[in-house]
């Protein structure tokens, strides 16, 4: 059987000391199982985290593009890594009651974002974390859309949305 290797290249904009530059990074091949990347995040050490919704996992590569780990997550979409190393992964299993799972730097579970049960999102399609550790989640299904902002402890602090003509449409 003939093995075909397809290399996937990703250009990552990295900010160091205020200067942004693009660096090409080899993040794996089909031989390592990366087939349908959806979103990507990079931690402070340069590790690359790639969501694969249809395969139900997050694949982790080191700064040199070597495979490090795979994390099983149901239909992962949005992904972000906080300055403290916490990993946030949004899921889209159904049309509502989806979750944003939180993982420690060693990829063990740290629970879910928000209070109560691990649900409460429509479809967390994108996530980012600022330098202060605030988490921003784009929660949208194409009809109802909002940007939810959480403080570093994971408590909801604000929601940005509109109504009528001013509503957010796929933020």
Characterize the structure shown:
This protein is mostly beta strands. The protein has strands at about 5-15, 20-30, 40, 50, 55-60, 65-70, 75-80, 85-90, 100-105, 110, 125-130, 135-140, 145-150, 155-160. The strands form four sheets. Strands 3-4-5-6 form a four-stranded antiparallel sheet, with no helix packed on it. Strands 7-8-9-10 form a four-stranded antiparallel sheet, with no helix packed on it. About 30% of the residues are buried.
Largest sheet, if any? 4 strands, antiparallel
Uncertain residue segments: 1-22
Strand content: over 45%
Q: Please report the distance between the alpha carbons of the first and last residues.
A: 45 Å
| SSE run | EEEEEEEEEEEEEE
Radius of gyration: 17 Å
Mean pLDDT: 79
Number of helices: 0
Q: Provide the spatial order of strands within the biggest beta sheet.
A: 3-4-5-6
Helical proportion? under 10%
Estimate the global geometry from the Cα principal axes.
globular
Number of strands: 14
Structural class: mainly beta
In short:
With 171 residues, the protein is mostly beta strands. It has strands at residues 7-16, 19-29, 40-42, 48-52, 57-61, 67-72, 76-81, 87-91, 100-103, 109-112, 124-129, 135-140, 145-150, 156-160. The chain is built from no helices and 14 strands.
Topology:
Elements: E1 7-16, E2 19-29, E3 40-42, E4 48-52, E5 57-61, E6 67-72, E7 76-81, E8 87-91, E9 100-103, E10 109-112, E11 124-129, E12 135-140, E13 145-150, E14 156-160
Antiparallel strand pairs: 1-2, 3-4, 4-5, 5-6, 7-8, 8-9, 9-10, 11-12, 12-13, 13-14
